[in-house]
Write a structure and sequence with these properties.
Radius of gyration: 39 Å
Number of strands: 14
Largest sheet: 7 strands, antiparallel
Helix content: 40-55%
Distance between the termini: 94 Å
Structural class: alpha+beta
Number of helices: 31
Strand content: 5-15%
Length: 800
């Protein structure tokens, strides 16, 4: 298509302005609106062809008028979290768009006619200039809203545009006259045809709402543009908003800012606020926080609540203005008192944290409730956390769940995560793992590392979702890449056990170290075990002791037990019976049965002075270490605003809340009357499940101990004799029953374990040799492996 042809189609002559092109384009589409010809196949087809020509012409002339490089329809349109987006004053139905402009007619797509509106306007709906009577004899300046109705009607009939406008408005609102929208539109159209900007704007409103006339958004846009060109600030604001949002017109930020600035410079507060948004985001104008603050301040001074909130945010952060927290609180309060929900939330946070204002839990709660009641999801999530933890309010899990659910349903990622945790654990609600998984899946869509970790756990154990170790590893890896500590530890377990990935102990240790370096006590102890045993790394007793010390300082009982062993044997630590006694004592005080046995055995070879010194050391170390830190079940930090802080650690979902999981090496029952035995049974649990191991001699029960999945344990002081080794794997340890409550499976090693002391004398030297036997539990078929095992019934296992 040539430029001459395009000019002819749109009835334009060169030179022409951008505004003339847009007006001609919209009016051409208006005339050929397909809806006018509904039921007439010939005219519908013709209108479709005409619309294609009109769009092509617009594209041709748009390129002549302005190089394509200056028109950027792909400019980002999102609003930052720090500001609130004001919707257009009237909502337009999204119309089909092409790259070149607005499609106001039917577009054929795959043989289906897609109509932009259900309304089929007639020719009578199109605003046509009407012949006017002679100008009124009475000067227009004498007219006002209080002019008697008879005088007003007389002058309107004589052609006074002002009288026609005032009469139309009174009919529209029922002011001193029966409300009649149809008659109102008639008088407004007459005034609009005479170029009255206010009448044109009011007529556009009538068409947008379908008030007194059939709803016609296309015609409404035409009248909005005419009113804006007359300098009507409200129309300029609306037109600017339509261009900024791409509603009813091709999205064009530069054009939108042009109209918005015109309205803002006339002092229209909403337009000033929108100009602030545009300057802040750089949409259609050079980005400038300083300029944004200037516009926000103008609008805020006029009482625009959204602008007051935004001004407060900038003052609080010092972005584009000197930081002034007290001034920020002042503007937050002004906006909050106008029921601006985000400002109410910010004011609540300020009272909650005591930032440049007296900390006041009651005021914090009051403002948070106001914001939450208006549907502010940040406030709802924050209220959920407060009620869950009892921070400044009585603890109320039911109330917490109510707010978590409201926020989660609005897409708040922290609330989705927290609600998932409550459902998984059955905290304040019926336990529902499948529902928990559903919320975790919603949260992972926003890359929440904690939810990724928990979803991985659910896949690993088949909780609430079909078991899939490969999927578990995928989600652990995503969370671990974000630095999520528990995910790094779980990924290490998967590599160590060969769950979802080929077994690779070196890779396992690499991930354990990442978690350990972030301070996870269990990971620190696991790294210590790896260096102690040379599993995946070169064996190094001193390095093992360093990691045990880190975990022990956090109260890890097994790490304390391992340090006792190290001090007793002198492997990695200086040989020191007093220190060994102290470490055993710390572990035993936390219920570590093996440590208690070792401490009693050690005591038999110590004098009273050493024992007193050791007990004093235990008391000192208990004061120094304190109680082990508790793992939070719900994130307690307020939801992020801008920017979002790193995701908080996930709740440890290793076992359900009803489980009372023991530490590896915990002695469940021990019938030995002395600890003179010198044999050692090493057990390497390569399963995901924890195991309860029983030692049987001469068909009599001797002892039982607990080993977690993926862990090793050395059972010392085994007396000489032949032992049958049984074990039961499972989940959900019940301390009362001293057994697993879910997934129990029992087995017996086919080969008995024989322990005996052998004494050899060479010359004058006599050496005693004690047996150290090692068993590994792995997934294998019955009768296979170096030490085959056979599945047995639970009744046989429970017999002992």
């Amino acid at each position: 298509m040539t430029t001459t042809e395009a000019l002819s189609i749109l009835d334009l002559a060169a030179p022409f302005t951008r505004e003339q092109l847009t007006n001609a384009y919209q009016e051409a589409l208006l005339f050929w609106c397909v809806g006018r010809f509904e039921g007439d196949e010939y005219m519908t087809a013709k209108a479709n062809a005409k619309n294609a020509e009109i769009r092509a012409a617009y594209m041709q002339l748009h390129g002549v008028l302005e190089p394509a490089s200056t028109f950027n329809p792909m400019h980002p349109s999102g609003r930052p979290q720090s500001v609130q987006q004001r919707p257009a004053r009237r909502a337009l139905s999204p119309l089909a768009l092409s790259a070149g402009g607005l499609v106001l007619a039917v577009v054929v797509a795959g043989g289906v006619l897609l109509r932009p509106s259900s309304h089929a306007p007639t020719m009578a709906d199109t605003p046509e200039p009407a012949p006017q009577a002679a100008a009124p004899a009475t000067p227009a300046a004498t007219l006002s809203s209080t002019t008697p109705l008879a005088d007003l009607q007389a002058q309107a009939e004589q052609g006074s545009a002002q009288a026609q406008l005032l009469l139309g408005l009174r009919l529209l609102r029922g002011d001193g006259i029966r409300m009649d929208a149809v008659a109102a539109v008639k008088w407004l159209r007459m005034a609009a045809d005479q170029g009255d900007g206010t009448a044109q704007y009011e007529l556009a409103e009538a068409y947008f709402k379908g008030n007194g006339v059939a709803k016609d958004e296309i015609t409404a846009l035409v009248w909005t543009r005419k009113a804006a060109a007359q300098g009507n600030a409200d129309a300029q604001f609306d037109l600017g908003e339509f261009y900024l949002q791409g509603v009813g017109v091709v999205k064009d930020f530069a054009e939108g800012v042009q109209w918005m600035r015109k309205a803002a410079e006339q002092g229209l507060a909403p337009a000033q606020y929108e100009m602030g948004l545009c300057c802040f985001t750089g949409q259609g104008v050079a980005q400038s926080s300083t300029e944004a603050v200037g516009w926000f301040r103008k609008a805020a001074a006029q009482g625009e609540a959204s602008a007051q909130y935004c001004l407060g945010k900038h003052l609080a952060s010092g972005d584009g203005v000197t930081q002034d927290a007290r001034e920020a609180v002042k503007w937050f309060r002004k906006a909050a008192e106008q029921n601006n929900a985000q400002a109410q939330y910010e004011l609540g946070l300020t009272y909650q944290e005591g930032t440049d204002i007296i900390q006041d839990d009651a005021e914090a709660l009051r403002w948070m409730r106001k914001a939450a009641a208006q549907g502010n999801r940040d406030a709802q999530s924050s209220l959920g956390t407060r009620f869950f933890t009892g921070a400044g309010v009585p603890k109320d899990i039911a109330e917490a769940l109510k707010w978590f659910r409201l926020a989660a349903e609005q897409g708040d990622v922290e609330a989705q995560f927290n609600l998932g945790c409550c459902l998984f654990n059955g905290t304040g609600v019926t336990q529902d793992a499948a529902a928990a998984v559903s919320w975790f899946q919603k949260a992972v869509e926003k890359d929440h590392a904690g939810a990724q970790t928990n979803l991985g756990h659910c896949y690993l154990y088949g909780t609430g979702i079909p078991k899939n170790a490969t999927e578990a590893v995928r989600w652990f890896r995503k969370a671990a890449a974000q630095g999520q500590m528990l995910a790094q530890y779980n990924l290490g377990l998967c590599y160590g056990n060969g769950n979802g990935v080929p077994q690779d102990r070196s890779e396992a240790v690499r991930w354990f170290i990442k978690a350990a370096e972030q301070g996870d006590a269990e990971a620190q102890r696991t790294v210590g075990m790896a260096f102690r045993d040379g599993s995946g790394v070169l064996q190094n007793a001193a390095t093992a002791a360093e990691w045990f010390l880190k975990a022990a300082a956090q109260g890890d009982a097994e790490a304390q037990n391992q340090l006792g062993l190290a001090c007793q044997s002198g492997r990695g630590m200086p040989a020191d019976r007093v220190a060994a006694y102290a470490w055993y004592g710390l572990a035993a005080a936390q219920g570590h049965a093996q440590a208690a046995v070792s401490q009693r055995a050690l005591e038999t070879g110590m004098d009273s002075t050493q024992i007193a010194a050791a007990r004093q050391r235990v008391a000192e170390m208990q004061k120094q270490n304190g109680a082990p830190p508790a793992t939070p079940t719900i994130s307690t930090a307020p939801p992020p605003t801008m920017p979002e802080p790193p995701a908080k650690p996930a709740e440890d979902l290793e076992h359900l809340p009803t489980d009372q999981r023991l530490t590896s090496g915990a002695i469940v029952k021990d019938t030995r009357t002395n600890l003179d035995g010198e044999g050692t049974l090493n057990l390497d649990n390569g399963l995901v499940e924890d195991v309860l191991v029983k030692m049987i001699s001469n068909n009599q029960f001797v002892a039982s101990f607990y080993v977690r999945g993926g862990y090793k344990f050395s059972f010392d002081h085994v007396p000489d004799g032949t032992y049958q080794i049984l074990y039961c794997s499972g989940y959900g340890w019940d301390a009362t029953l001293r057994d697993f409550s879910r997934g129990r499976q029992a087995a017996r090693f086919e080969k008995p374990m024989v322990f005996h002391i052998e004494t050899k004398t060479e010359g004058t030297t006599t050496t005693r040799y004690a047996d150290v036997l090692t068993l590994s539990i792995k997934k294998a078929l019955n009768g296979t492996g170096n030490t085959p095992k056979t599945d047995i019934s639970l009744e046989e296992f429970d017999r002992y």
